[in-house]
Structures are given as structure tokens and as C-alpha cells.
Amino acid sequence: MAQKSTSIREQTRAVVRSLLARTALELFAAKGYDDTTVEEVAAAAGVSRRTLFNYFRNKEDLALSGLSEQGELIAARFAERPADEDPWASLRAAFHVIEEIETTPEHRLEMMTLLFGNESLRAGHAEKQARWQDLLAPLIEPRLPDSDHRALQARAIAAAAITCLQAASQEWVHAGGQVDLFGLYDTAVRAIRRT
After folding, report:
1. pTM for this model (two decimals)
2. Fold assignment, 2-59
3. Would the pLDDT of 3 be above 70?
4. Are 71 and 129 in contact (CB under 8 A)?
């Protein structure tokens, strides 16, 4: 019985966290990240500042909260791919999780513009994506030929793919969201995989 209570509590916490993050992102998009205070986010969400900090460490964590969940979803999607598939193909398929997040194209563009337009958020975004390497490298490693440097190679592939995704995302923002994100990703990957 206690296990059910914990599950409900965790589910409730996840829902509240998601609603708080969504409220914050809407305010950030409307007013700008730097011009929006934590107090305004709390007021718009109908909670106290203290409650907000029960769910998020700081304003940056609030703005970037979805990236950790995205990393876990990407890793899970990668793990579902055929074991004999090329790691680069599996990564590309796994990255499609990003386009499956329920939002409008306009909202996605607003959020990405906000993300890449603010130095602090851009740095936080890169840091969170670096953590994706820790999730992906152990999944890539068994797919590589046996060698003394297989773990290093797996980390390098994960890092390179994530960097390609970030470069493609920035280019997508510069194009006003009017181009195919994964077409840009493929172009970035081809640039580093040339032999």
C-alpha cells in the first residue's frame, strides 16, 4: 500500500513540476528570460516562491528543466533500436524524441530562440546535453568493435552527435524554424564524418 502512495506522490510532483516549468517558459517567452523574476513565475503559477524552490534549484534550472527528461527519453529510444544498427543511425532515430514533444511549431521556435539567445541558458543547455553523453556512451559502446579504446570512442560519438544536434538546432533557430531540423543535423554529421 505504501508503494502506491509513493507512486501517486511522485506522479503529483511530476505534474506540478511540469506545470511550473510550462508557466515559467510562457513568461520567459513573453517578457524575456532576464526580465522575468522568480516571484513573477511563482505568482503566475499560483504558488509561493518557497514552493517553487521545492521543485527547482534556481531560475536557470526552471528554464532548462525539460532537458534532463529529454536525455532520458533519448537514451531509452536509443536502447530500443536494433543492436546491429549503426550507432549514428540509432542516435538520429533517438533524437527524434525532441520533435515528438507536444508543442506548436511557434512555441518550439520561441523556446529555442530564448535558449540560444541567452548566454546563461545556452551554457546551461550545453551542460545538460553533456550529461546526455553519460547516458548514451554506455549504450553505444557495446555496438563498437572490441578495442582498448572502445569506451573513449563511444563517448566521442555521443559528444559529436550531441554537438551536431546543437549546431543544427541553432541553425534551425536562425532560419526561423522554416527548415527541416534533421536535414540540418544530417548536414552537420556529414561534415564531421567525411573520410
Report:
1. 0.79
2. Arc Repressor Mutant, subunit A (1.10.10)
3. no
4. yes
